[in-house]
Structures are given as C-alpha cells and as structure tokens.
Amino acid sequence: MNHVLEVRAVSKSFGANHAVRDVSLNVERGELFALLGPSGCGKTTVLRMIAGFETPDRGDVLLDGKQIAQLKPYERNVSTVFQNYALFPHLTARQNIEFGLRHKGNAIGDLAARTQKVLELVQMLGKEERFPARLSGGEKQRIALARSLAIEPDLLLLDEPLSALDPKLRKRVRGELKDLQRRVGITFIIVTHDQEEAMAMADRVALMNKGILEQMGTPEAIYLRPKTRFVASFLGSVNWRGEYGVRPEVVRISPTAPRNGARSHRAQIHSSLFLGNCFHVEARLEDGTALTAEIPRQDQTYLPGENVHVWWHPDDEIHLPAAS
Amino acid sequence: MKNRWLAAYAAFAYLFLHVPLLVLTVFSFNASRFTHWEGFSLKWYAVLLEDHRLIEAALNSILIAVAATALATVIGTIAAYGIWKRSAPVLEGSLYTGLVTPEIVTGVSLLALFQGLFHYFNFRLGLHTVILAHVTFSIAYVVIVIQARLKTMDKSLEEAAMDLGATEFGAFRKVTLPVLMPGVIAAALLAFTISFDDYVITSLVSGVDTETLPMVIYTMARKGVSPAVNAMSALIVIGVGALIVAAEKLQQQHT
Ligand SMILES: Nc1ncnc2c1ncn2[C@@H]1O[C@H](COP(=O)(O)OP(=O)(O)OP(=O)(O)O)[C@@H](O)[C@H]1O
Ligand SMILES: [Mg+2]
C-alpha cells in the first residue's frame, strides 16, 4: 500500500448546501496531486477536511492508513499553505518558520539549522528578519511554503497557490513549485480552478463538479479519455456533434477530400484568426452546423468564404452520451 | 494648494483640541489666583499637597479606574473574541443598548440593583460598587474597540497556528492576542479615561463616604475654581499623556 492519503466516500453539507458528496480520492506518496474544478465545486472543503479545519459528515480520511477524520489540525502531520498565506504579522519571517518547529516539529535542538535549510530551499536567505508587512506577495508565499515545509509534513496542501500572483509570475512559480516538490519529495495536493495549471503541474488530477468527483487520473488519461462530457469540456474545447465530439486540434482542413479513411465533410470557412502558434478557424458544414478547428501555422491559410473539406480520424472522436 | 488648506485645517483642529489643556497647565503655574499672569510660581502645587480631600479623591479615582479598566478590558476582550468566533447577535445587541442608555438611567438602575442586593447581603455602597458600575459601562466600549481590530484580522491566522501544531488556546495566546494587542491597549486607555471622569453614575453609587475627583472638583467649582484644581488637572494631563506615549512605544515595537 503506497497511498499516503485515502479519502473514502466523504460528504459534507453546510445547512441545505451539499458542498461535497461521496468523494473518494487516493494520493500516492511523493506525487503532486491536483484537485481541479470550477468555482464552488467543493475543492476547498475537501482540502479543509484533509487539514482538519472541517469534520466530514460521513466518510473516512486515512493518512498512512490511520483514520484521521476526527483529529484536530494539530494532531495530524499535514500542513497547509493558505491562499492568502496567513503569515503571523507580529512575527518575523524567521519566527514564523520557527513557530511550527516549536509546536509540531520535534526539532527544538536544531531549530536554527532547520530554519536555515528551508530558507535556502525557497531562496529567501537574507530576508528572514523582515516582518510580513515588508515582504512582496511572492516572498510571502515563499515564507509560507518554508513555514510548512519546515515541519516536514506527510502531506502539504496548497489552496490556489498561484491565484494571488500576477499572471507573468504565475508561469514561473508553477515551474519552481513543481521543482521544489521533486527536490523535497513531500506529497503535494494543489487546489486550482485552472485546468492548464493542473495539467502542467500535476502527476495526477481529480476533477470535481458540484460537490462530486467526476474523474481522477493522469492529465493525459483524463484529457484523452474523459468519462463525462463535463470532463471533456472542462479540460479543453470540444465540438459536440450529436453522439460524439472532436477537439479543435484534431480537425484538419484541406482543399480536396482526403483519401485516408478519415471522416470528411464539405464546409465553408467562416473566419480565420491568426493566434501566433496556430490558426483558429471557424467553419460552417453543409448540414449547417459550426465547427472550430485549430490548424498548425505551417498549413495553408484560408480566407472566409472559401470552400474546403474538414476531416479528422475516427480514433480522435470522443464518444459520450449527451445528457449526463 | 489643496494640501495647504488641509494643513491649516489640521493645525486649527489640533489647536482647538489642545489649547484649553495648554492654558490650564500654564495657569497652574500662575502666582495669581485669577486669570491674568503675575509670574511663575509653584504655590498651587503646594496648596494641592495640603488639600487632603482632593488628594484622597484623586487616589480613589485612580484606584477605581485601574481596577475597572483591568476587569473591563479582560471581560470585554473575551466577549469580543467570543462574538467574533461564533456570532452572538443577542449579546452584541445588548452591549450596544448599554452604550445608548442615558447615564442617569444606568446610574439609577445600578443603584436600585445594589440596594436590592444589599437588602439580602450585608454590603454597603462604596469603592467596590463604583468599580462594579464602571466595569459595567466600560465593557461595551472595550468590545467595540476590540471588534474593530478583529474585523481587520485574517480568520485563517488561528487556523494556520493550529496547522503548525498550536492548540486552540495556544493559537489564541500566541497569535490572536498579540495581533489584537494594539486594540487591547487602545480599549484599556479608553476605559481608563471614561472611568476616570465619570460623574453621574459614580455620584449615584458611591454612597456617603467615597468621593472621586470629578465629584470633588464639581463641588469646588461651584464656589469658583481654585488654581489647586488647575494644578491637579495639569498633573492628570501629564500622567495620561505619558501613558499614551508609553502605549504608542509598545505598539511600535512590532511594526
Ligand atoms: N463555512 C461554510 N459555510 C457555508 N457554506 C460553505 C462554507 N464553506 C463552503 N461553503 C459552500 O460550499 C460550497 C463549496 O465551497 P468550496 O469553498 O469548497 O468551493 P471551491 O471549489 O473551493 O470554490 P472556489 O474555487 O470558488 O474557491 C459552496 O457552495 C460554498 O458556498
Ligand atoms: Mg476554494
């Protein structure tokens, strides 16, 4: 058994609001796991039940095989990096890090050494005597990370760690965070509503919707083999055509019909936008339906009104029943 | 241009607030007993030292204010924290009612309560009833000041503390309380001031043997203010000023 965390059929309601319903997850030791879903789907609630800030109405939470659902936050070896960092404003960066070490870590002896180590890890050496008010958003996040890493938790929980950063910084920190996770080898669970972020960072992704778990798997698996239309649409755009759908990037366009067994339709170009890395083409099919295609820059360019053939390989079709 | 007006306005407001205190302090060093300057003298301070009634009243006022402030600050801080943790609309509402009730009503009702109680227990009105009364009416002020501070406090700070291994009490003591401290100090200063200069309620519940400074000054003022009162007031202004400066210094240590 290599699951560091198992969540079994957990439910949580706030009054009449069923925030989380029958969610089961298993997280493997050392992996970076993403909890993904639209706003209000219950991601934070799941995270807070793992951290101990909420108690599930039903279901089990097992850390290293031990039931922890009813334990207080200070009784479980889990740590959270809060969305707003929650640094203690009356303590310096160093004292913030030492806070956890004094209470949870059993490392009073080499307090200074441990603090030094995590400061180095997040590249914040030299700023440890500052109060949080004198740190930038990115620096606060590093200290919050260091503070959690210092107590060497079995599990590190991060709620929307990138959402407070400006977009330029976000992509860089994404890489740094993943890098850091590999180096320290601690299991990370990241909550995000950005599917690109989840796909880029995570070893495995759990996608939630309206309090239930839709699908769990590697980014490739859930992108290529979605189990519901919600999953397929949330992870990328899909042209739904009755019983099946095709993603814009598998659609090809050519002046003549292909002779390779592909599914092909006559169509007229409606619009074509140059997006730098590709063209975004809207075509209208003979049967009146619209279709979006993303075609490589190297392909021929098409003008609105041109008559063309659009086609794709049947293998690339996503077959899922409509109403679900 | 706009800034200059603003500065002038600020200066004016400042003067308006502090000139009376300045005049008072200056005249406490006046050789004459009237409001024209005759030369520097400490004689009113000497007169003050001889005035046992004034001195005793001042000591009473200080004792009452210190005791009432300590109690009201502790109770009020805990009440505000409780209301913040789990909303308690009834408790909160009743506190605000206390604030808007006319002092004379509060005073009379406290008097009725004390007399009712003392009918069964062998107690008399005195310092302790004044202290109780002052605690009663200053709690609401303490709660309001602390609540203002709590509103700006991040709810996840306590969660973070527990996440890092502190118990509920540890989180309160090591995180919440230090973060609230400036508010607690401000609340204590306010409670102290309110207690120190209360006249209406105090005179109702103090009984016959206990006098506070406002009561004595009020009685004396009807016969014309003695410059000894000026001297006493100047000492109070300096004392309270020193307290405020000390409190500011304490707060600045953290930021
Ligand atoms: N303490 C609470 N009291 C009442 N309702 C709550 C509470 N916490 C969450 N909810 C409700 O539970 C549902 C799930 O909330 P949750 O915060 O877990 O969503 P989320 O997926 O994290 O959303 P977001 O991406 O916006 O942060 C929402 O409908 C929310 O309003
Ligand atoms: Mg959330």
Describe the structure.
- The radius of gyration of chain A is 24 Å and the shape is elongated.
- The mean pLDDT of chain A is 92.
- Chain A has helices at 43-51, 93-103, 111-121, 137-150, 167-184, 195-201, 219-224, 229-235; strands at residues 3-14, 17-28, 32-36, 58-63, 66-67, 78-81, 155-159, 187-192, 204-209, 212-217, 239-241, 244-246, 252-254, 263-274, 278-285, 290-296, 307-312, 318-319.
- In chain A, the strands form 4 sheets. Chain A has a 6-stranded mixed beta sheet, with helices on both faces. In chain A, strands 13-17-14-15-16 form a 5-stranded antiparallel beta sheet, with no helix packed on it.
- Chain A has 324 residues and is α+β, with helices and mostly antiparallel strands.
- In chain A, strand 9 (204-209) and strand 10 form a beta hairpin.
- Chain A has 8 helices and 18 strands.
- With 255 residues, chain B is an all-alpha fold.
- Chain B has 2 domains: 1-41; 52-253, Orthogonal Bundle (MetI-like fold).
- Helix content of chain B is 79%, strand content 0%.
- Chain B has 11 helices and no strands.
- Chain B is globular.
- Chain A binds chain B through residues 51-53, 72-74, 78-80, 82, 84, 86-90, 99-100, 102-105, 131, 133, 147-148, 151, and chain B through 154, 156-157, 159-167, 170, 174-175, 178-179, 181, 254-255.
